[in-house]
Amino acid sequence: MEITKNTASHPRRTEWSLSLLGGLKQQGAFAARERTVHVAAVGGAKLDHTDAELPAGPTHVVKAALVGGAELAYPEGASAEVDAFSVLGGVDLTVPAGTTVEVSGFSLLGGRSKDIAGEPGGAVIKVRSYSLIGGVKVRQAR
């Protein structure tokens, strides 16, 4: 008995990006997956979701690299969870006004900055970062 999946009605929920050298870049109008995983020896991830078609639930971004950070941007009303591990490199996050950002994790060298305030009941973006060198920077879109 052969089992097939109709990929038109069941699109992939996870997008994988694996590379020795090179990063992942997504911007403009595209259909974002529920989970994006980028693993690289050298190379970061630059994901601009401001014009993307987002899934109904939260988007999950996982980035792991020896050298390379993550630069992420989200539109108003987005719900996201970011989990990052880096030996060198950090996370630069841009969110709309009123977004609540929760940052947790571990950094041996490097810091975390979050100079914005959220609104009760507004969108929430959760960031977990694990790095030896590098940190998390959260910016508000202007």
Write a structural description:
This protein has 142 residues and is mainly beta. The protein has strands at 14-21, 24-26, 35-42, 45-48, 59-67, 70-73, 80-88, 91-95, 100-109, 112-114, 124-133, 136-140. The strands form 2 sheets. Strands 1-3-5-7-11-9 form a 6-stranded parallel sheet, with no helix packed on it. A 6-stranded parallel sheet has the order 2-4-6-8-12-10, with no helix packed on it. Residues 1-10 have low confidence and may be disordered.
Oligomer: single chain
Mean of residue pLDDT? 82
Can you tell me the overall shape? globular
Low-confidence stretches: 1-10
Please bin the fraction of helical residues. under 10%
From N to C, what is the helix and strand string? EEEEEEEEEEEE
Protein name: Cell wall-active antibiotics response LiaF-like C-terminal domain-containing protein
Organism: Streptomyces ehimensis
Short account of what is shown:
This protein is an all-beta fold and 142 residues long. It has no helices and 12 strands. The N terminus is likely disordered.
What would the keywords be for this entry?
142 residues, mainly beta, six-stranded parallel β-sheet, 0% helix, Cell wall-active antibiotics response LiaF-like C-terminal domain-containing protein
